[in-house]
Amino acid sequence: MDKHDWDRRYAKEDLVWSAEPNRFLVPEVGDLSPGRALDVACGEGRNAIWLAERGWDVTGVDFSKVAIEKAAHIAATRGVQGTWRVLDVVHESLGVEAFDLVLIFYLQLSAEERRRAVQNALVALRPGGTLLVVGHDSSNIEHGWGGPQDPAVLYGPDDIVADLEGQAEVERAERVTRPVETEEGTKLAIDVLVRAHKVL
After folding, report:
1. Which candidate, 111, 119, 121, 60, places its Cα nearest to that of 85?
2. CB contact at 8 A, 90 and 113
3. Topology of 3-9+21-198 in CATH?
């Protein structure tokens, strides 16, 4: 989907995603002291807003103007502030050593574009800062539930580790399961979770 498709999707009154933060965000960053956080491809801003409510100085970026406007509105209604920018995370700079935490959640791109986005995120991360990547795993098509069905935009933990090119110390790189409620009962989706610290 291009940004116009995402604009149309986000233009609906209802939330595309839940208002709650991603289930993997809370346990992975709960032990971190608030600082500056960047949410890459933030969509409606649920993860950035959750961080802002806990004292983080947040920036959310997305290539969908409608998503960014929606995120800013939701943040305002919940009484928190953030910086919201329309930006192409593959081809534009995200900043230079500006953030203590960078999130890349469910950014499903071709391998080349994903590598560029990860490199841009690393450049934006301060030395010692935390990078958290969560996405749909390549095994999900055959063994999991939902998610993109195009294998070209899926990846595994080892792919993200390779994208980091030794520029970060990897703490976790694994497949994790996520329950999805359906009309047929609870199904399990298979996701990638990588947590790393940028080398000093």
Report:
1. 60
2. yes
3. Rossmann fold (3.40.50)
